[in-house]
Design brief:
By secondary structure, the protein is an alpha+beta fold. It has a three-stranded antiparallel β-sheet. A hairpin with a 5-residue loop joins strand 2 and strand 3. Helix 3 packs across helix 5. The model has no long low-confidence stretch (mean pLDDT 83).
Length: 154
């Protein structure tokens, strides 16, 4: 099979000129997300950071941003699941889900300590409608803190 690509932009053409004829290369095809969802995502994280700064001052960290993100996921009632696991497995769970909220610890009838967690799929798994709801939630939080965006184009 042969695939022909159309390349736009000088940088891409320069990169292609470095390819060696006759050499096999691997290409990955992925779905292109709509510009709207990319713009939504950029605005989402910009607002989250502004909220974080308003609440925590200029020393706000990415952990503070993450707390705002988790709050917004909860308020937007984003897709989630409940999972009960051993406490030592929580870090592994956090590697596989976008956001994890530890809810409570309990002991099973057999004496095993467990942690109940709410795990969110996160904005990367949302469709445009779900992402819009999350963005509206973040805009509401920002508005409560007197953070306003002059012009929003999404």
């Amino acid at each position: 099979a042969e695939i022909t690509f159309t390349v736009k932009g000088m940088y891409s053409i320069n990169q292609l000129s470095e390819l060696v004829k006759g050499t096999l290369y691997r290409a990955r095809l992925t779905e292109v997300k709509s510009k709207r969802s990319i713009k939504q995502n950029s605005l989402l994280w910009e607002l989250i950071h502004e909220i974080s700064i308003k609440r925590n001052g200029e020393q706000a960290t990415s952990d503070d941003d993450w707390d705002v993100y988790l709050e917004a996921l909860e308020k937007a009632n984003a897709k989630f699941e409940y999972i009960a696991i051993k406490p030592e497995a929580v870090p592994l769970l956090k590697e596989h889900f976008r956001a994890v909220k530890e809810l409570n610890r309990f002991t099973t009838e057999k004496g095993v300590e467990m942690v109940q967690c709410r795990v969110y799929y996160g904005s990367s798994k949302m469709d445009i409608k779900e992402m819009g709801k999350l963005l509206d939630t973040v805009l509401d939080i920002a508005s409560e803190l007197d953070i306003y965006i002059k012009e929003i184009e999404i």
